[in-house]
Protein: Amidohydrolase
Organism: Klenkia soli
Amino acid sequence: MSLDSWYERLHAAVLEELPAAVELRHALHADPRRSGDEADTTAAVVAALGAGEGREVAGTGRLVRIGTATGPTVALRAELDGLAVLEQTDVGWASGSGVMHACGHDAHLAGLVAVCRAVARVGGPAPLLALLQPREESAPSGARDVVLSGLLAEEGVRSVVAAHVQPQLAAGVVNATPGPVNAATDEFTITVTGHGGHGGYPHTTHDPVLALAAVVVNLQQLVSRRVDPTVGAVLAVTQLDAGTSFNVVPDTARARGGLRVMRESDRTALLTALTEVAEHTAAAYGCSAQVHTESNEPVLANDPELARAAVPWLARGGVEVDDSWRSFGADDFSHYCADARGLMLFLGVDGGAPDAQGRRPGLHSPRFLPADETVGQVATALLAGYLAGAQLLGT
Ligand SMILES: [Zn+2]
């Protein structure tokens, strides 16, 4: 059967699955679990898939083979965890537990189930694996642990596809950018040490607060002068900590923040420059600086061929396709992209009811609640990714 015929057949089967998938979304939304504690959510999704128990992975995660076909395989991934957020929506299926699906994972899971059940029922052009991933929202990363388990390689996974809601995109648009689309992230801590003393006699001190303030300002030139600004990078100081009193100059002052880049060479260049600027600026104020950094997610780079192959299938699904949007957000999906072809499809959604100022809620807001149609959009995106993955397997 041609891929065109498979698409028609699967598209019709997915539509039949949607009402039940929307019910599943409500059930998952009403009863979410935090990162690392997703066993009940996993059980509910595994039951809805109706394809057996699958293999445990990364603690509460699960790999469920859809149908009996094995060999080079396409995996569809969705995240199991909610966030420690007290929901502030008024739907009947709101969560009251202080945990909330405020990042759309309920809709991602439901859309994945719709596609997998359709393939189980009518067949498909390539072996398919449901990848139910724990701990997307927390460290250590669930995706990293799934990759380290080696089970994806054992299952013959060649492509991993996911969809994520994104209220920064216009509702109804699906994004498939070839190459880097989400940032690599590093945390940094800068500790400036001076010599404290009486606030009335600052000339007898080496003031670390003033030195740190200068460091924070001087760091802002790095993203425009040390790396190509057309590629882009983000350096944000988000936490300051110094002193205990209005009339005492402290001995130390501390800043924390994040560095986000789209390519590895920029990361190296900026981390070197960050240390240089912090140390030399502090020295100019008679102080010293120590910089500590910690790496989080790598760059999320979509496989260019897989992204391009998905576009015609997305268009067949009736969605408007965007192929250039990127953001300096991060998602641990990036870990899959090192070993397999990876494709993250971002879906434009309205985040929920607007507030008094007309602002719609964003990801992780207690009012974030994209409409139920999102489940169908997720399914359309994942189906397109599955067809694209099958196409690249040569089936
Ligand atoms: Zn998320």
